[in-house]
Amino acid sequence: MRLAELNWPAVAALSKDTPVVAPIAALEQHGGHLPLFTDSMLLAEVVRRAEPALGDRVLWAPLFWLGNSHHHLDFAGTLSAAPRTYLDLLGDLIDNLVKHGFRRIVLLNGHGGNITPARQAVFEARQRYREPNGPLFLEATYWQLASGPRVLPPSFTQDQMGHACEWETSMILRLEPRLVGPIEGLEPVPLAAGFEPGARGWLTQDRSTTGHIGDPRSATAAKGQILLEMFATEAAAYLERVISWDGCSRLG
Question: pLDDT tens digit string along 198-213?
C-alpha cells in the first residue's frame, strides 16, 4: 500500500501494527559520470522490486529525497539539509506517524550520509516513547541488510558499497544508461576513509577530487541487475521480520 494513494479514513482504518516504511535518500553529486538523483533512483527501484512480495502488509510513505549531504556541498548541484535539521525532520516524521497510531516505523535508507542521523532519530524516538513493549523504530540501509555473507560473481571488483562506484554505476547502467557519462579512464579511489577503526570526520573532497569513491570502471548493466535483485530480496526479507515480530520479544 502507498500512503500517498490512500484517503484519511482508509489510513485511520489500518491496523496500527502495519509497518510504515519511509524511504529516505538524497540529491547530491555522484562523480562526473552519474546523475545527482542516483541515491533516490536506486532506492525507489529497490522499493519497487520489493513491494510485490509484501503486498498490503506494509504501508509505504513517499520517498523523501532531501538528505544529509553536507559533505558533498563542494560539488555543484548537491542539495542538503544540515545534520541537525535533518535529524529534526526525521524525528518529526516519526512523531507524525506515532500520532496516527502506528507502532512499527522503518526508515529505509539509501544514502550513506543519512545513516548516522537516521540511527540517532530512531534512538531518540524510543526515548520519547518509553512505555514497555512500546513502538518499534528502525533504521535500515538497503545495502547493509544481508542476513549473511554475500556471494557475488568473481567479475565484481568491490565487495561493499562505495559512492558512484562499481555498484552504483552498474545499477544506473541497468536503470538509465543514457544518464551515465564516460567511465573509461576514471581512477579508482580507496573505499576506506582512513584511521580505522576510528570514525573519521571527512568531506568528500578530502578523499576524492572527482567525487567518486570506489572503482566505476568495471561497472556493467548485468552487474546492476544482480545487485538490484539482491538488494530488493534482502529488503523484503528484512521487512518480513518486522511484520512477523510479536510486539514484545527482545529480538526481531
Answer: 999 999 999 999 999 9
